[in-house]
Amino acid sequence: MHSKVSSLFDLTGRVAIVTGSSRGLGRAIAGGLAHAGAAVVICSRKLDACIEAAEEIEADGGIAFPLATNMTDPAAGQQLVDATIDRFGRLDIVVNNAATVLDRPLDRVDVDTFNGAFGTNLLSPLLLVEAAKPYLAASGHGAIINILSIAMVRATPDRYYYPPIKAALAQATRSLAVELGPLGIRVNAISPGTFRTDMVTKAYSDDVLAQRAATNPLRKIGDPDELVGPALLLASDAGSMITGTVLTVDAGDTA
Question: How many domains does the chain have?
Fold first, then answer.
């Protein structure tokens, strides 16, 4: 029985693209998928950071392919898929994690920065999914995970880019699940709360993070590795009946 349960999370022979995976949550997810047996494409704008993350995975016995990719480029999704197929010959999992956290209050909203944020956080994931679709359908285990944020469910009057666009990606997740389900592709999302990433620790002091931890039911700030389990559930056969779902992982912050 135990072997059957563990096999549900086994990704041996599968290939995953994880965007924005040279650091933070993306890096943790990529490492977790690799540990479960998947070959992982590590991609972000900086090749040296991708190589470092890939070498860490390979040192742990995994398979990783570093690739510099700028998801602000509309052609990046197709290029990323083409490079993945050239290297591995298949694609089974796509994790849309790359994002810009650029934000503006209402009196500073402008067309260029809004379009840039919209393009990176919503258009790029959609274009990557479209490019990946035929390969995910051929996989027999096709899975897409979009990374959101609990900011999308709260009023954020000083932030008119990131939270609303993440809310739009949540809606797109549900629509994609309905559209791609008949092809055997599952589409889900994870909505993280506050995790101790480089980005978060640079933006907030230890005192502020301690205050945030004190207000959620589990009284904690997440470690990036704590997102690996939810990602494995949605990427593997353990989640074979789950699609169109937004899984909130926030220590109960939005309960």
Answer: 1
